[in-house]
Amino acid sequence: MSNPSMSANDGYFLYHSIGQYPDKEAELAAAMADFARVWGAANDRQWDYLLGQRALFLELWGDIIGAARGTVTTCENVTQGLHMLMTALPKDLLRGKRVLVAEDCFPSNHFLLTGLQERLGFTLDTVEKRQGASWVADEDMIDRWDRDVALALVTWVSSTSSRRADVEALTAHARAMGSLVGVDITQAAGLLPYSVDAPVVDFAVSTSLKWMCGTPGAGILYVHPGLVSECRPELRGWFSQENPFNWALDRFELAPDIRRFDNGTPAIVSAAATVPALRWHAQIDRDAVLAANRELTQRLIDAADDLGLHLVTPRPENERGGSVMLKLASDAVAAQTLETLRQQDIHADTRGPILRLSPGVMTSAEAMERVIGVLGSGGRFESYH
């Protein structure tokens, strides 16, 4: 049974999954009420409002990742965004070459790339974790990365270890090898500072969930302007044009910027529903949010060391995202531990035996102590000694 003295929602540790911020429910409800009011009105004013919401979504996302106007578009999710990019590349760019990815990438991306390799003519090369390691080392990626790598997908922060890749070093190697490089920024966007120009990458994909605190279906695809002109998206439609209202069948021409990755009528509801979260991001003190996360995650790491728990996440601050992950003794113990945490109004999750804890803007120091109390109850974890 929950303790009535606990602060409401202060035990939320799921910023690696969905993400919450104060007043999210009310702001989301208001945004959806506005949508219903406009879409349900018997007049001709729907599209100006809806396309304006989509444009605002893209503008706010662009500000967060330092992307110029005309370089970011919507997609349903990271996997779809990656598919849009891969299938739009020049046909001879990938054929007979390798596409490089780390074993600890988001599995959905790997599923996609595995299925595309035969049709697009590339070989998918998956860099494995070293024996006993929790993540793929940057130097192992670089060791496998020769001039026959046409494209590499870098996972900025791992969803199973919170290990942060050295994007600068990997991108520098990509340039030396003549490879395209893209970054999946999903597990840290909205918490750690990120710019598509520092270092310059060819593309980036993300969801609006997790630290972004948005809604499902609101993914983004960024493509560098120098690459956009070489891309010919296979999925195209009236919104792929400079003028979407061109109906001449013999005068179709792709838009000169990221809009060429659009196709039919855009899915706008998820973008409109995420605008409140993006506005909240634009107003908060991001440095303070990150500092609070660092204080709480360091407290948990110190406690894990004191308790002799198996820490999966790197200890150095500059080598990790915003989560701390601990290896439990088994999947069954993981389920039991989650239930014990729920009884303390602590909300986290697991991947197999790995307990994932991500303190964010709504997480209190007192809630962290409740977590540590559960972890210190004994017998739940493998020792790393």
TrEMBL record:
Taxonomy, superkingdom: Bacteria
Gene Ontology molecular functions: transaminase activity
Domain Aminotransferase class V: 64-349
SUPFAM superfamilies: PLP-dependent transferases
Matches recorded under Gene3D superfamilies: Aspartate Aminotransferase, domain 1, Type I PLP-dependent aspartate aminotransferase-like (Major domain)
Entry keywords, A to Z: Aminotransferase, Hydrolase, Pyridine nucleotide biosynthesis, Pyridoxal phosphate, Transferase
Protein name, entry field: Aminotransferase class V-fold PLP-dependent enzyme
